[in-house]
Design goal:
- By secondary structure, the protein is mainly α.
- The chain contains 20 helices and seven strands.
- Helix 6 runs antiparallel to helix 14, helix 9 (198-227) runs antiparallel to helix 14 (328-350) and helix 15 crosses helix 16 (368-382).
- It is globular, with a radius of gyration of 23 Å.
Length: 514
């Protein structure tokens, strides 16, 4: 080992700090309390932190290139935007959400810890289960959505190969049994990959990312060739204009787009804990997230516009579009790409986090693999894919509500780690009873209060829009708490800012003592 790579022992003698700023447990320190530690939650040794810029770039390409990402632009167009307004909204949202992504990701790379362990510093060793389970619940819903989409890809792909009888099989609960079988097969593939561990996930993302890019470009070329151009959608004017009608839709839509990745802005330490350096995770994420999401939105608009010229109607769903292709080989290739894209995003975005979160709940009995299996079961049972059927529900209700709650957690994490602790953590105490993160019975009541207040301000005014006299969603039209309704359109920003300020103010008197 070169002198530049030799770590120094901190005064506590429990951790080592390397010249590049990364921290590891000192030799001889044992995390022996099974209530708070297991092999999956323990800090990643520095020698195993090997992810480079390309790994994070590939991770984001793999996660961003999915069906819900593809259809984000369609949801905005359905709300009255033209394609330029939709792409602008998506691009701006991803630039904004990149900031908390990098701020929380720093802790993962510096200390080698996953999100629920990072949350112990602010919420307490036991209190961290509160934000962890909120995050896990969201991920389980997304897992169900994406698994159903992947199963649909297998169903249609098999239909192209096996013929019409596969697609018209007898039904169970209104759905062909062959589609249920396809759903189960895709679920089994996902579980098989994730239970092999994070290194297998890294390899999957590395080869999935370029394949998905090539597939999307091939689909674009095919549609442009068939349409003789990119079709009429590009010339379709905005029904909202650029006046007050646009801004009324823009801000809640922006919060919804931020909400799309606000989940990962919390649990990104689950991935950055494997980072070879801060520079690798920062460059990889900055190159991967906003650019990929924006380019993917442009691709979806161009391909869909071509489909309108070819088929007489815009086909936003790439699975449905692939199934319409008369060329069997082309359709099979397109559907394979869609399945790979869905597989890569669902495992990375929707299984890794709840696997760690559930393991954090009962480390003695739930390992990372067991947490992944529980996530898979819950994702089937709750069947949340109906959320994406209505853009009003999907963007305003689902993404907006979830984004508000998760923005609140992000505000607390960032205030605690960057403002109160100046990025300095006592690594071993994150796994110990009666350490500096034990607070009151394992709970930091100041963080809980900040979460409660920030959450009420962020989502207390949640409301459902009314279209043609019909309420679009589960909330009252006047809002859950009517006087907070004006804040609901800015839920993520309100939650993050209010929780940040309150947690920072409550913690000022304790800074240096916790």
């Amino acid at each position: 080992m070169s002198s530049a790579a030799v770590p120094r022992t901190d005064p506590s003698a429990t951790q080592l700090t390397y010249p590049d700023g990364r921290v590891a447990l000192a030799g001889g320190v044992v995390l022996d309390d099974p209530r708070f530690a297991n092999g999956d939650l323990a800090p990643v040794p520095v020698e195993r932190r090997t992810w480079r810029t390309y790994n994070y770039l590939a991770l984001w390409v793999g996660m961003a290139h999915c069906i819900p990402s593809w259809t984000l632009a369609s949801g905005l167009v359905a709300l009255g935007m033209d394609w330029k307004q939709a792409v602008l909204t998506i691009a701006l949202a991803n630039l904004i959400v990149l900031a908390p992504m990098l701020l929380t990701g720093h802790a993962g790379t510096k200390y080698g810890i996953p999100f629920p362990v990072f949350a112990r510093a602010s919420f307490g060793v036991r209190g961290a289960n509160l934000p962890a389970l909120v995050r896990a619940a969201v991920a389980c819903c997304w897992f169900g959505i994406q698994t159903w989409i992947g199963g649909e890809g297998i169903y249609l792909l098999a239909g192209k190969v096996l013929g019409h009888r596969w697609l018209t099989a007898s039904t169970i609960s209104g759905t062909p049994w062959t589609q249920w079988l396809s759903f189960l097969l895709f679920w089994l593939v996902e579980i098989a990959v994730i239970t092999r561990g994070m290194e297998t996930l890294r390899r999957v993302e590395n080869w999935a990312a370029p394949l998905v890019i090539v597939g999307a470009l091939v689909l674009l070329g095919f549609m442009a060739s068939k349409a003789g151009g990119f079709g009429p959608l590009l010339d379709q004017p905005s029904r909202l204009g650029w006046g007050s009608g646009f801004w009324k839709v823009f801000f809640p839509a922006l919060m919804g787009m931020i909400g799309f990745w606000s989940t990962l802005s919390l649990n990104i330490p689950d991935f950055t804990r494997f980072g070879g350096s801060q520079r690798a995770q920062v460059r990889g994420q900055a190159l991967g997230l906003p650019t990929t999401m924006t380019l993917f939105a442009v691709l979806s608009v161009l391909v869909t516009s071509g489909s309108q010229a070819v088929y007489g109607e815009p086909v936003w769903d790439p699975i449905a579009l692939s199934a319409r292709m008369s060329n069997v080989a082309g359709a099979v290739f397109a559907l394979l790409v869609v399945m790979v894209a869905t597989l890569s995003v669902n495992i990375a975005a929707n299984v890794v986090s709840p696997a760690y979160d559930l393991s954090n709940l009962v480390p003695r009995f739930i390992s990372f693999r067991t947490g992944a299996l529980i996530t898979g079961v819950i994702g089937i049972v709750i069947m949340p894919w109906k959320l994406i059927a209505n853009p009003h529900v999907y963007i305003f209700t689902w993404l907006g509500f979830v984004g508000g709650l998760l923005g609140t957690v992000a505000g607390i994490l960032i205030a605690d780690y960057w403002f109160l602790r100046r990025t300095e953590l006592a690594l071993a105490d994150l796994y110990r009873r009666e350490g500096r993160y034990w607070f009151t019975g394992g709970w930091n009541l100041r963080a809980v209060l900040a979460f409660a207040v920030g959450g009420v301000l962020a989502v207390g005014g949640s409301y459902s829009t009314v279209v043609g006299g019909v309420k679009q969603g589960p909330f009252p039209a006047d809002g859950l708490i009517p006087f907070l309704k004006p804040l609901a359109d800015y839920g993520w920003a309100v939650g993050l800012a209010s929780a940040f300020l309150l947690h920072a103010l409550l913690g000022l008197g304790r800074r240096g003592r916790d």
